[in-house]
Amino acid sequence: MNGTLKKALDLLGGVVLGKETQLRLSVACLLARGHLLIEDIPGIGKTTLAKALATVLGLDFKRVQFTNDLLPADVLGVSVFDAAEASFVFHPGPVFTNVLLADEINRGTPRTQSALLEVMEEQQVSLDNSTRVLPRPFFVLATQNALDQAGTYPLPESQLDRFLFRISLGYPDLDSELELLGRSQHGGRPELPEAVTSADEILDLQERVDGVRTSTPLLRYVRDLLEWTRAGGRFVNGLSPRAGQALVRASRAWAFLDGRDYVLPEDVQAVFPSLAVHRLRPAGGTPVDMAAVLDAVPIP
């Protein structure tokens, strides 16, 4: 593994305890130029993860608390008339950053949620006949409450598809929770470590991830996974070609974290559940069994 990334993951592991897999998926998501959705109950550490990730990687961080009265302008920015200049001046919204925490995104109305569609796909904001490019790298980390909680608006498929991964942190293991309880005697909030890298180095790492090799048999394996989700009427909609491209990018990032310049089927299998779980809706209404999907498609 790259030394900088290993150090970053070690430091993150000291802040978000007992969640090595989720932390690695978060870093892989950023390296693959994706966005991350975390669905869990309050108080699990979602916001702490977002802040720690931005701090350790040396990236600018902003947070937006989504509520039902939040407007698109509160996220994107707004032009205000300046009497002294006799013209409108654009005031950038919090989206102009490297890491944007969209906290409780499904408490925002569909209109405000849709304000992020162009931002997440094109990494730009189009307002007042002007297009403004966002800082790079740009990473949206959104948290989502369970859909059965009051005051939530389900994210539409087009919005969900913008997220590379959906993960859940879950409760900590017993040893990690004991350590967390011990921290509560000293204020409860962990100290965020210093940055070990910078935005420019992250951009360089993303370029290196793009260069990780994928063989033809490996790409056939990805294609077969996509085709299996589309056949047999198992799901309302199978995985799209864009989801397939995202799966290849995510697999490259996972291989890169393992210190390899080539992708193995095991890399695809490692990231597939987090990539597919929010994209596949079973036709029968029963939960999606990702292990069954992987078992059904032969490994090359």
For the structure shown, list the relevant keywords.
single chain, 300 residues, alpha/beta, Rossmann fold, Helicase, Ruva Protein, domain 3, 2 domains, two-stranded antiparallel ribbon, globular
Task: Describe the protein in words.
Helix content is 43%, strand content 14%. The protein has twelve helices and nine strands. The strands form three sheets. Strands 2-5-8-1-9 form a five-stranded parallel sheet. Helix 1 crosses helix 2, helix 2 crosses helix 10 (241-257) and helix 10 (241-257) packs across helix 11 (265-276). The longest helix has 17 residues, at 241-257. The chain is globular, with a radius of gyration of 20 Å.
Condensed summary:
The chain is of the alpha/beta class.
